[in-house]
Amino acid sequence: MTNPQRWTGTASAGESALPSPSSLVLASGSPRRAVLMGQLSVPFQIVVSGGAETLAPGLTPAEQALHLARQKARAVAAMLPDGLILGADTVVAIDQALLGKPSDDADAARMLRALSGQEHEVITGVALVDAATGAVASRAVVSTVRVRHLTDDEIAAYVATGEPADKAGAYAIQGIGARVIAGLDGCFNTVVGLPMCAVAALLADAGVALPPAWHGCRLPDGSLCPNSV
After folding, report:
1. Residue 38: how many CA atoms within 13 Å on its side-chain side?
2. How far apart are CA 44 and CA 36, in angstroms?
3. What pLDDT does 8 receive?
4. Could you write out the DSSP letters of every residue in 163-176?
5. Alpha-carbon dihedral of residues 185, 187, 189, 190, nearest 10 degrees?
6. Residue 81, SS3 per DSSP
7. Nearest to residue 99, comparing CAs of 115, 118, 86, 88?
8. Where are the alpha helices (DSSP H) in 17-148?
9. How far apart are CA 99 and CA 123, in angstroms?
10. pLDDT reported for residue 229
């Protein structure tokens, strides 16, 4: 796997239709990913390609997450003369079957019933593309999540909050959905949508200097993410 060309540069943080050259760009419209990227205190801009995401047949869940992350990053990289473009995609898998975003409330309830009392994997793929050269480096981070046994009334009440509507697997671990979780093994931020342990490693490998204030990817209790140890 080829690492992106090393580069240095600065850019104003925030959202822009067309970033300045040699900028770091987050290829995602997710507010959650933008907040997580902000933890690094590395200036970045946001550009969303708006292109359709397409699954590739025959891939494992981890391979699928990487495929989609690269797809997003390359779509934005094609719009720019240079800079480093970070793409990410999160998939939820139970017994190797992917659970996407629910199509409606009934679909959300179906997913939550399938997850009830079970372990499943949440995989976030991250890809860093050098827009000038097309070089790409990527990583997939896997976390195991255990959902407690849910009653039909609990599922209905959670679906009624509206939170599951745009979430892969129909829950948000950082939101009200924390109530349905019985346990987590791995990187919490992977489940939220952007494993900062992997992002920081990719950026460091690409020659981006991380600030001294960065002390590693963290769990909700403030302890160090196991992938950052």
Report:
1. 10
2. 12
3. 24
4. GGGGSGGG--TTTG
5. -90
6. coil
7. 115
8. 31-38, 61-77, 105-115
9. 11
10. 64
Residue for token digits 């104003």? 12
Instruction: Give the orientation angle of helix 196-205 with respect to helix 31-38, to 10 degrees.
Output: 60
Query: How many C-beta atoms surround the C-beta of residue 87 within 10 A?
Result: 28
Give residue 53's pLDDT: 75
Residues of the chain short of pLDDT 50, as ranges, are: 1-21
pLDDT of residue 49: 80
Q: Is the dihedral of CA 99, 220, 69, 137 positive or negative?
A: negative
217: exposed, middle or buried (Cβ count in 10 Å: 0-12, 13-18, 19+): buried
Alpha carbons 57 and 199: distance in angstroms, whole number: 26
pLDDT score for 220: 87
Which residues on neighbouring strands pair with residue 137, listed in sequence order?
128
CATH number of 14-212: 3.90.950.10
Active site residues: 89
Q: 88-101, pLDDT tens digit by residue?
A: 999 999 998 999 89
pLDDT of residue 146: 97
CB atoms within 10 A of CB 49: 20
d(CA 65, CA 143): 13
Short-list 11, 23, 4, 139, CA closest to 79: 23
